[in-house]
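pasting for ref. prot 1 ->
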Amino acid sequence: MPYPQDGKIGTENGSRVNPDFFDLLRSCHLRLVGAPLGGPDATARWLYEDAPFCVLAHDASDDPRFTYANRTAQRCFEYDWAELVGMPSRLSAEPDRREDRQRLVDAVHRDGFAEGYRGLRIAKSGRRFWIEDVTMWNLVDDGALVGQAATYGRWRDA
C-alpha cells in the first residue's frame, strides 16, 4: 500500500517524495472531485516542494494523525515535517473550533469529498488563520479507506 504509515513517507534524493502516495492522492482526487490535482504535468516532487497551495493528509485512525504536509502547508502551519507529520490533525484547530473541523471530516467520510469549506486554524506560534475554499477528499486504496487529504490555496490571518 502506498499510503505513508506511522508518518513515514518514502524518500527520493533526500526529499519527502513518494510517487506511489502521490498517485493515490491524484487518483482519488480525480475520481472523487472530478478534477486533476496540480494539473496534468504535476509530479510528486513538485507537489511537495513547489506547489503554491497547501496539501495535507491524515490517516484513518480514530484520532487521525497527519501523514503528509507539503512545504507550503508546513510554512502555513509553521511546523517542519518532523513536527507536523505524526501530530493529531485535530490539533490544527483550537479546542473551540474542533467540532466544526470534525463535521467536515465526518461529511467527507460519508460523501467522499467536500468543497468550499472555510475554517479557523492555529499555527505553531499561536497565530490564528483562516483556510478558505478547502477541498477535502477520502483516500481509498484497494477499496479500503486509508485516510483523507485536503488542499487549499487561500489562507489569511484572522
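and prot 2 ->
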Amino acid sequence: MTYEEKKAWLWRFRTAKRFELLKLDELATLQTDATHTTQRFSPVPGGSGDGQALPRSVERIDEARRAAEAQSAVCDTIRTEIMEVFRQLDDEVDFMILFRRYILLEDWPDIAINIRISRSQMFQRHSAAIKRLEIKSPD
C-alpha cells in the first residue's frame, strides 16, 4: 500500500464513528419525538389520528436502535483491525501519535501538546510510522 492508501485505511474508523454518531443522534431525536405522541389539548376539535402514533414511534425507535448497534459493531471491528496493525510499532511515541490521531480522532495541536513534542517532530514521526506499517490489502 502507498502512504496515502495507508492513511485512507486508517481513516475508516473516523468515517464509521461519524456514522455511529449520526445514528445515535437519530435515535435520540426519535426518543424525544416519542414523548410528544399524545394529543395536545386544544379548544378546537380536530385530529384525524388513527391511534397508531405510539406503536409507529416505538417501531422507529427500535429500528434506529438496531441500526446504531450495528454501526457500533462496525466501529468495534475497524478499531480492532487498526489496533492490530498498530502493534507493529516498537516506539511508544509513534504509537501514541497514530493512536491519538486515528483512534481518539484528536487534532494535530492536541496531539503535540499531549505527547510533548514539537509539531514538526510529530509530523516527521507520523509519516515515518505510517510508512513502516505493514497493512494487508483488503483485496
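Residues 3-36+54-132 form one domain.
The helical segments are 3-10, 12-34, 53-86, 92-102, 108-115, 119-132.
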